[in-house]
Design brief:
Distance between the termini: 33 Å
Helix content: 40-55%
Structural class: mainly alpha
Largest sheet: 3 strands, mixed
Strand order of the largest sheet: 1-3-2
Shape: flat
Radius of gyration: 23 Å
Strand content: 5-15%
Order of helices and strands: EEEHHHHH
């Protein structure tokens, strides 16, 4: 039995739209065991921040800053300074460009892998999958083998 009180922990997702709906600034979720109606208090909270929130409160000002592109018009000085650094300091700009480039590369690689998996599921020849996706033949064969493991489940 769980008797020790756990520290309160918040997992916060700031999203660009009001995905849960309702126009509220925040949506907090509690954990329920699957198939039960009894809540277990782990001290764990999931909060979704509505990025569209434009209220005249601290969160509304923060969301306006997050959407804004001009650091001189931001409400929060710490965020404004950091954005200004990222836009004007050569070292910071280079680091940001490198980070974005890495994300783009990883996203493309992930997409090519997903496409390769879809082709393999449709039983396209591994050679054609490799050629079409730019994945190495070795990687395509690894993916094919992992798909064989899926069908064993």
């Amino acid at each position: 039995m769980w008797t020790q009180k756990q520290p309160e922990t918040y997992v916060i997702f700031a999203v660009d739209k009001d995905y849960p709906g309702g126009g509220l600034p925040l949506h907090e979720y509690e954990m329920l065991p699957k198939g039960h109606e009894v809540k277990i208090d782990f001290g764990l909270h999931f909060v979704i921040v509505n990025g569209e929130w434009q209220g005249e409160d601290a969160l509304g000002r923060l969301m306006a800053d997050m959407h804004g592109s001009n650091p001189m018009k931001m409400h929060y000085p710490v965020l404004a300074r950091r954005c200004l650094d990222l836009k004007t300091d050569d070292k910071e700009v280079r680091q940001m460009c490198d980070a974005v480039q890495k994300l783009v590369y990883e996203s493309r690689a992930e997409s090519r892998t997903e496409i390769a998996i879809n082709f393999l599921r449709e039983q396209v020849a591994p050679e054609l999958v490799s050629k079409a996706t730019g994945r190495s033949m070795e990687r395509v064969l690894e993916l094919q083998a992992s798909l064989g493991d899926e069908s064993a489940d």
